[in-house]
Each structure stands twice: as C-alpha cells, then as structure tokens.
Amino acid sequence: MAPPATGDSRGPVRVLVVDDEPQIVRALVINLKARKYEVDAAADGASALELAAARHPDVVVLDLGLPDMDGVEVIRGLRGWTRVPILVLSARQTSDEKVEALDAGADDYVTKPFGMDELLARLRAAVRRAEPVGSGDDDSVAMVETEGFTVDLVAKKVNREGRDVRLTPTEWHLLEVLVRNTGRLVSQKQLLQEVWGPSYGTETNYLRVYMAQLRRKLEADPSHPRHFVTEPGMGYRFDR
Q1: Which of these, 32, 64, 65, 194, has the minimum number of CB atoms within 10 Å of its CB?
Q2: Residue-level pLDDT at 45
Q3: Taking the domain 6-129, which CATH number applies?
C-alpha cells in the first residue's frame, strides 16, 4: 500500500476541490484518493468557503467559473484569513485573467483541458512551497534585517514596523530565494524553476505579479523599490 501523501508532520494532505463540473470533480477525487490524499469537494463558492473554514485544507484546487460567484471572489475570501495554497483550474486562458487570479492570491494556474499528471505535479509543488522551513537551513542567513523590515527564514515570518506581514506561500518562497541570494542577480528562469518548479521558465508574468505584491507589502515606496530590484530582461536582486 502506498504511504499517505503528506505535506508536513500533521499527516495526510487534505485537498479541497471546487468545481461545478461533476465529471472533473469525479476524476480529481479518484486520482487524488488513489495517491492517498484526503479530499473534500464543493460545487459552488459559498460551499467552498464554508468547507475551507470547517475542514482547513492543505491546498485548494479552484475552478473560476462557479455558479454563484466568480472564483476570484473565492480567492479573496480565502486570503482574508488563510495562506493555504490555491491552484486555479479554469478554461479562461488570457494573460489578463491569469494575472487577476494570481494578483488576488492564487499560487498557480492550470488551464482546461489539463493533463492529470501535470496538475498533480503542480499540486505537489504548491504543497511543498507551503511547508515550514526545516531546522537544517543555513543559520548564517537565518535572519535578514533592513531598515524597514526583518525576514526570519527559520520562523518563516516577516515583520515590518513591529507587525507581522501576511504573505502567501508563493510570496514567501519567492522572497526566500531572493533573500538567500542577497546582492546577487537571480535570473527569471531560476526564480520560476525554484518557486514554481522545473517545468516553468517563460511565465514571466508570474514574477511580475508577485514582485509587485512583495513591493506593496514591504517597500516604503513600491514604485521606486530599494530592496526588490529589477534587472530588465535578466531577473531580480534583493538588496538590503
């Protein structure tokens, strides 16, 4: 028997599937349960928000085209209180719609029709990004301080002006990669592959959205960033 799919020491990973197409829900439930995930399912946004509050999933797979509300509203509703990874599953394929979902707080975006293997790989990557930083991390870079905020890589926390800053798992992972390479240029491809996975390399709009979010949350003047520096056409650099 295969061991349970686990995201951390708490036990099996719980997935909330939100989609109003019964055949897609059935396929996802069968495939996830076969891989030892625990699965809850909702067919509309209101039920999804209720289930998320009651069951505390480790990852959410969310369709945007729901019967009672737009999936982006569900993302915003979840982001009001949880950092759970959100993997969007949608037939909407335009860049603007993808950016809107990412900007609302989604962690990744898979377009329909989709391959089950790709979806499961992205789901595993989303769960890994949300895992706590282990005690084996390099203590020499455990804490990074700037004049405006502090990054604690071990506790996985950011503090700005005496208050904790809430980051999504993907925002945190991007910040962590940049901070661990303080003062060094990190290429767009390297960032995409380290944060989203090895199958990524050209989705630069993901980086644009998430860098903008980090700047809004941490820079004193997001339009003239001091710490999160863009090297046009090449990548990004974190400076203290």
Answers
A1: 65
A2: 96
A3: 3.40.50.2300
